[in-house]
Amino acid sequence: MTLRIVVTGKYGQLTQSLQRLGRCDTQVVAVGRPELNLENPSSVRSVIEDARPDVIVSAAAYTAVDQAEENPELALAINVEGAAAVAKTALGLGVPIVHISTDYVFSGEKTLPYVETDVCDPISIYGSSKFQGEQLVAKITDNHVILRTSWIYSPFGSNFVKTMVRLAETNDVVRVVDDQYGCPSSANDIANAIVSIAAKLSAEKNSDLRGIFHLSGNNSATWADFAEVIFDCTRKLGVKSASVDRITTKDYPTLAKRPANSRLSNEKLHSVYGVYMPDWQKSIMIAVRAILHDKI
Ligand SMILES: NC(=O)c1ccc[n+]([C@@H]2O[C@H](COP(=O)([O-])OP(=O)(O)OC[C@H]3O[C@@H](n4cnc5c(N)ncnc54)[C@H](OP(=O)(O)O)[C@@H]3O)[C@@H](O)[C@H]2O)c1
């Protein structure tokens, strides 16, 4: 039987990656603006109901980390009240929800990778809004997976890989922060993992499958390490590349604070679901090639 996944947000990185998996056992239906607008929670239920989900993936969010500092009300409305409306719909329909959250729920003070039971202590409005969203979703329905991921890249939308590829076209040296550690995650790898999770959730009532899970690319990096690997890819593909000037967070002020360490441990996901994420270094060439497809 085909599993019908309804995902919120029409043009997000994760949505587009889910839609392009092209699996014959899964149908992915994207719902979003203008019909479903998380700023208007009353628009959510009927649109999702009409899409007849077996599982709902709640991916849409206010994701502009710096802009959230200047628009806290909007970030909170979308990431908390909007997320709650999606969770209430899942409860009403009696279907599981996979709610996508972030590594930015953590402060970054831990030196080891974060596990699911670690205390959340966000240091930005975005992180705080996503944390409040998680808590409300979990309160509304037990039939949930809260999936925290990190540093998403893909050929779609805006992300670090696309920015580096663009900067390499016009710069020989790019300054990149080298004292924030995280796990780059391919949206395509996350999408594959979500399908495995959704299939199990839909088939089994087991409470072990529910709760918070971390899911990110295997291995960690600083943004500068990440950029080096991207530039290796552009070099191998024969287009203009760049080298990295490693700088500190202090040298690159941003509106929102970022955690110094937001590495996530995937161990729980691996042991409960048997899902194993590829090394991020192995997945990156696929994304860089797709970003550059008309130039190589
Ligand atoms: N990007 C990252 O590095 C990262 C890291 C950790 C966690 N996450 C989480 O992962 C999830 C997916 O991220 P992503 O990178 O795929 O996001 P994205 O590319 O930034 O896309 C955001 C999506 O949210 C939708 N959206 C925003 N405001 C909306 C509203 N008011 N009503 C309905 N839809 C709205 C957008 O709609 P349109 O299609 O209309 O533009 C878009 O589809 C998010 O929950 C995010 O918090 C992301």
- How many strand elements? 12
The secondary-structure class comes to: alpha/beta
What's the gyration radius in Å? 19 Å
Average predicted confidence as pLDDT: 97
Secondary-structure element string:
EHEHEHHEHEEHEEEHEEHEHH
The biggest sheet amounts to: 6 strands, parallel
User: What small molecules does the structure contain?
Assistant: NADP nicotinamide-adenine-dinucleotide phosphate
Question: How much helicity do the residues have?
Answer: 40-55%
In percent terms, what proportion of residues is strand?
15-25%
- Helical run tally: 10
Oligomer: single chain
Shape: globular
Widest β-sheet, arrangement of strands:
2-1-3-4-5-10
Distance between termini? 40 Å
SSE diagram, text form:
Layout: E1 3-8, H1 13-19, E2 26-31, H2 44-50, E3 55-58, H3 65-70, H4 72-93, E4 97-102, H5 125-140, E5 144-149, E6 152-153, H6 160-170, E7 173-177, E8 181-182, E9 185-186, H7 187-203, E10 211-214, E11 221-222, H8 223-236, E12 243-247, H9 267-273, H10 280-291
Parallel strand pairs: 1-2, 1-3, 3-4, 4-5, 5-10, 6-9, 7-12
Antiparallel strand pairs: 8-11
The structure holds NADP nicotinamide-adenine-dinucleotide phosphate.
